[in-house]
Amino acid sequence: MKRQHIDTGVKFSFSVIALFSITALSLIMVFLFKEGLPIFEQISIKEFILGKYWYPTDDPADFGILPLILGSLAVTLLSGVMAIPLGVMTAIYLAEIAPNRVTECIKPIVELMASMPSVVIGFFGMVVVAPFIQKTFNIPVGLNLFNAALMLAFMAVPTICTISEDAIFSVPGALKEASFALGATHFETIFKVIIPASLSGICTAVILGLSRAVGETMVVLMAAGGAAMIPGSIFDPVRPLPASIAAEMAEAPFGGEHYHALFAIGIVLFIFTFLFNLMADFISHRFRQVGEASL
Amino acid sequence: MEKRFHVLLMFSISLIVASSQLFAGELVIKGSTTVLPIAQKAAEAYMAEHTDVKISLSGGGSGNGIKAIIDGTADIGNASRFIKQKEVTLAGTRGVYPVPFRVALDAIVPVVNAENSVKNLTMAQLKDIYLGNIKDWKEVGGTPGTIVVISRDSSSGTFGVWKDLVMKKKRVIPNALTVPSNGGVVQAVANTPGAIGYIGLGYITKKIKAVDVDGVVGSEENTLNGSFPISRGLFMFTKGWPKGETMGFISFILSRKGQKLVKEAGSIPLF
C-alpha cells in the first residue's frame, strides 16, 4: 500500500514538473505571437516579408524585412559551406581513422569549443578577424557577411562534429567487418558503407548545427556589420534577423509599432528554427538505419 | 462574517495608506542611457544628503523615459532629445502636461580613422556622405578610397540627433554599418581605414580622429557658445510642474554642485 503511494507520488510530481516546463515554453510562444501580430494591422504580411527597406523609427516608418531575411539566410548558408565539410570530416577522422589515444585527446577539445561563449567569438571576430579580412582582401570594411559566417562556422563545427561522430560510431561493427571481408579497403568502407549507414545522423547534425547558426545573436550583432541592405557580395555588411531584435529592442517604445515589428521578426525567426528542427526530426526518422539488412 | 470583512477592508486600506506614506520619499527615474550617468552621479550625491529619499534608476532609452512620464510610471523621464509632436499629442489625450528641464549639453562629433588626412567637413558634405551621394574620400579632399559609413542603430538617441541636425530628416543609406554603442563606433572606426562615424564628445579617444564641422572644432567651449553645429540638450521631463522630492532633485542637478557632477559624468555642464 505504502509503496503504491510513493509510486503515485513520484508519477504525479514528475508530470507536474514536465507540465511546468512545457507550459512555460508555450506561454512564451503565446506571448511572442500576441506581441508580434498587431503589426499586421498596420502593414500587410507581404509588405513586411518582401519590403526592401527597414527604417523602423522614421516618420512614416518602413518595416520591410527582406534585407534582414536574406542577410540571415546568406550568413547561415555560407557558414554551412564552411562548417559542414570541416565538421563531418573531423567526425569521420575521430570515429574511424584516428587511433584511440588521439580521439581521447581531440574529442574533449572539440566539445570544449562548443562551450565557448558566443560573445567571446563575436568579440574575436570584431577585434581580430575584421582588420585581418579587411587588409588581406583589401576591401573597405572587415565587418561583413564573410566575417560573420566564419565566426558562426566556428560555433557550428563542434555541434556538427559531436553529433556526427556519435552517429558514425554507432554504425554496427558487423557492417564494417562484412565490408572488409569482401575485400574493400578502409577508404571504400568509409565512403560506401559507414557514411551511408550513418547518413541520417549526419544530416541531423548538420541541421542542428545550422539552426544554431540561424538563431545566434551575439556573433552577428558584433561581426556582421549591421547594414540593412540586400547583400550583393560576400564582403557586404549584413544585418541578420536576431541582430536587429537585439540592437533595437532596448530602445523601441513599449507597445509601439516598432516594438510589435521586432516581435514579428521574432515570429519569423521562430518559424525558421522550427522548420529546421522539424526537418532534422523528419530526416532522422525517415532515413533511420533499421537493422543491418536494409543497406 | 460581514463584520470580519469590514475589519479586513479597513485594515487593508490603512495598510495602503501607510505604505504610500512610507515611500513618500521615493523617486523613480527612467529613460535615456545618455543621461543615465548624470542621473546616477546626481542620485548618489542627493541620497547622501537626503537619507530619507530613495531613488531608483533605470535606462531604456529616451522614448521609454517620456512614455514613463505619460503613463505615470516614473517621476522623472530622461531624454537625450526634445519631446516629439506624437508624444505631446499622446500626453494631451491622457491629460498629462510634460515639463522639460534642460540639465546638460552634449556634442556629437564626426570621427574618422587616425590615418585619414581629412580635417574638416561641412554639414552639407556630412549629409551627402550619409546619403550615399559622396562615396570616395577624394571628393572631400582626402586620399582616394571608399568611404565606409558607420551609423548608430535607428533607435539610439545619438542617431536621432544626427538625423535631425545633419540629415535634416533624410534617410541614411541602407549599406551604412550600424553599431550598437558609442564604444562600438570607436572600435569600428579605429579598425577601418576608410571609415567615418559619429560619437558623443566624451567618447573621443586617441585611437580615432575628430573632424571639424564647418571649420569649428568640436569642444566643450564651442558647444557652450553655440558655434559647434551638432550639439543637443539633455533633458529631464516631469509630469506637470514638479513638486516635493522631484522638485528637490531637479533643483539639485541645476545647482552649481549638480552641474559639477554633470561634468564628472562626461557631459557638458550648462554653466
TrEMBL record, chain A:
- Which GO BP terms, alphabetically? phosphate ion transport
Q: Which UniProt keywords apply?
A: Cell membrane, Membrane, Phosphate transport, Transmembrane, Transmembrane helix, Transport
Give all residue intervals belonging to the ABC transmembrane type-1 domain: 69-280
Q: Does the keyword Nucleus apply?
A: no
Q: Which residues cross the membrane?
A: 12-33, 68-94, 114-133, 189-210, 217-235, 259-279
Q: Which InterPro entries match?
A: MetI-like, MetI-like_sf, Phosphate_PstC, Phosphate_Transport_Permease
Q: SUPFAM superfamilies of this UniProt entry?
A: MetI-like
- Which purpose does this protein serve, as stated in its record? Part of the binding-protein-dependent transport system for phosphate; probably responsible for the translocation of the substrate across the membrane.
Q: What is this protein called?
A: Phosphate transport system permease protein
Identify the species of origin: Desulfocicer vacuolatum DSM 3385
Origin organism lineage: Bacteria, Pseudomonadati, Thermodesulfobacteriota, Desulfobacteria, Desulfobacterales
Automatic annotation (TrEMBL), chain B:
- Highest rank taxon of the organism: Bacteria
Which stretches make up the PBP domain? 24-256
Q: Which InterPro entries match?
A: PBP_domain, Phos-bd, Phosphate_ABC_transporter
Query: Which GO BP terms apply?
Result: phosphate ion transport
CDD domains per UniProt: PBP2_phosphate_like_1
- Where in this chain does the entry annotate a coiled-coil region? none
Its protein name is: Phosphate-binding protein
User: Its biological function?
Assistant: Involved in the system for phosphate transport across the cytoplasmic membrane.
Give the molecular function GO annotations: phosphate ion binding
Q: Which PANTHER family match?
A: PERIPLASMIC PHOSPHATE BINDING COMPONENT OF PHOSPHATE ABC TRANSPORTER, PHOSPHATE-BINDING PROTEIN PSTS
For this chain, the family text in UniProt reads: Belongs to the PstS family.
